[in-house]
Design goal:
The complex is a heterodimer. By secondary structure, chain A is an alpha/beta fold. Helices cover 37% and strands 21% of the residues of chain A. Chain A has one domain (17-218): Rossmann fold, CATH 3.40.50. The longest helix of chain A is centred in the last third of the chain and has 18 residues, at 203-220. Chain A is globular and about 65 Å long. Chain B is of the alpha+beta class. Chain B has one domain (3-114): hypothetical protein PF0899 fold (2-Layer Sandwich). Chain B is built from 3 helices and 6 strands, in the order H-E-H-E-E-E-E-E-H. Chain B has helices at 3-20, 41-51, 123-127; strands at 25-34, 61-67, 69-73, 79-82, 97-101, 105-113. In chain B, the strands form 2 sheets. A 3-stranded mixed beta sheet of chain B has the order 2-1-6, with helices on one face. A 3-stranded antiparallel beta sheet of chain B has the order 4-3-5, with no helix packed on it. The longest helix of chain B is centred in the first third of the chain and has 18 residues, at 3-20. Classes of the chains: A alpha/beta, B alpha+beta. Chains A and B meet through strand 1, helix 1 and helix 7 of A and helix 1 and strand 6 of B. Strand 1 (2-9) of chain A pairs antiparallel with strand 6 of chain B. The complex binds guanosine-5'-triphosphate (GTP), magnesium ion and zinc ion (2 copies). The site of guanosine-5'-triphosphate (GTP) has 17 residues of chain A, from helix 2.
């Protein structure tokens, strides 16, 4: 009998495939955003608002992750934007091999931005690196300002936090000051954007932040600035 | 929910390590699972039993070492254990905290047997 030391991450394969995805994105100068939120927080609405703000400037595609159905991909396609639907068949998060396969259906040469709508879940998408350049999370006003106390990890790993549905602030007992205080102490570097995705309010500042990140990746790949 | 994939990852890495060492059989696989991960023990054992028959790890056990969540408070210096939802420092209520452990998902080691008694000798061993 012998003991063999392995000492290896279990998600080693996911990490390696994610790194391979990332290499392709960097080579083609395509910025990839992993958008995470609870079900119904407004991921698809935010994606549509972001498309409206940036489509004249950048080539955009969307990867929709859902447990089942194609409805979100169809909403995006209706706006003339390429969209690939991934059905995880019950799994509560996306993994990098799924992204690799979805990306194969896209023409990376025509793109500057891919937005991934992760499965509605505040917990396990935080564990899976997909090869994205940034993870961003959306919290919507009706979910309550105390979510960062309950799900600190997703607020900690997000490079920006979007507070959506701010048009409903007057209806809900949402303490913006407390929310921002908690998020800042969990994650002092990340900006917080207030938006109403379906009305377009506040989307400009968010899109500007994103455009800056897109430019960095484009320029590193040798594309000319836009 | 993603235990099948995780278990396959555990087995792939274990087979690779066993083959590299020339082992013929795996009798135990030891892994560490942090409490802040989404891995459910029961589902892991279930997947393990479903995936091992007919492999090097047929009949092997899966030993799970649970790693509790611990953080360090950058404000007051306290190190403390916590659950997945309460990361705030229990001493000063500070939010500027760094996770020390609890997100592990690691294969630590495997126990192997080089040969089993009723094994048919391979041609090389027969010649010796
Ligand atoms: N009032 C208001 N409603 C919004 C806003 N953004 C989204 N909604 C509504 O919230 C609901 C869910 O929005 P979606 O964009 O589909 O949310 P999602 O996160 O993509 O949902 P799933 O993919 O099903 O998890 C829809 O009825 C939207 O119209 C907003 O800014 N204000
Ligand atoms: Mg959606
Ligand atoms: Zn999951
Ligand atoms: Zn403290």
């Amino acid at each position: 009998m012998a003991t063999i030391d392995v000492s290896k991450p279990i998600l080693d394969l996911n990490e390696k495939l994610a790194a391979a995805n990332r290499e392709r994105f960097d080579e083609k100068g395509v910025f990839v955003l992993d958008l995470m939120a609870s079900p119904g927080a407004g991921k698809t609405s935010t994606i549509l608002a972001t498309i409206a703000a940036l489509r004249d400037r950048y080539g955009i595609a969307v990867i929709e992750g859902d447990i089942a159905s194609k409805v979100d991909a169809e909403k995006v396609k209706a706006h003339g934007i390429p969209a690939v639907q991934i059905n995880t068949g019950g799994a509560c998060h996306l993994e990098s091999d799924m992204i690799g396969r979805a990306v194969a259906a896209l023409d990376l040469d025509a793109l500057d931005l891919i937005i991934i709508e992760n499965v509605g879940n505040l917990v396990c998408p935080t564990e899976f690196y997909l090869g994205e350049h940034a993870k961003v999370m959306i919290l919507s006003v009706p979910e309550g300002h105390d979510k960062p106390y309950k799900y600190p990890a997703i607020f900690q790993i997000s490079e920006a936090v979007i507070l959506n549905k701010v048009d409903t602030l007057s209806v809900f007992d949402f303490d913006v000051e407390e929310f921002e205080g908690v998020v800042r102490s969990l994650n002092p570097q990340s900006p917080i954007f207030h938006i109403a995705a379906t009305k377009g309010d506040g989307v400009g500042a968010w899109a500007e932040w994103l455009a800056e990140r897109i430019e960095t990746v484009r320029i590193a790949a040798g594309k000319s600035p836009k | 929910m993603h235990e099948m994939g995780i278990t396959q990852g555990i087995l792939d890495a274990s087979f690779e390590a066993a083959e590299a060492a020339g082992a013929k059989r795996i009798i135990d696989i030891r892994i560490s699972v942090g409490e802040l991960t989404e891995v459910v023990d029961f589902a892991l054992q279930f997947a393990f039993e479903a995936l091992t028959p007919g492999t090097l790890a047929e009949g092997a056990t899966l030993t799970v070492n649970h790693v509790s969540a611990r953080s360090h408070c950058n404000a007051c210096g306290e190190d403390y254990e916590h659950d997945r939802f309460q990361m705030v420092c229990p001493r000063c209520d500070g939010f500027d905290v760094s996770l020390l452990q609890g997100r592990e998902l690691q294969i630590d080691s495997i126990e192997t047997e080089d040969d089993v008694e009723d094994d048919v000798p391979s041609p090389e061993t027969a010649q010796e």
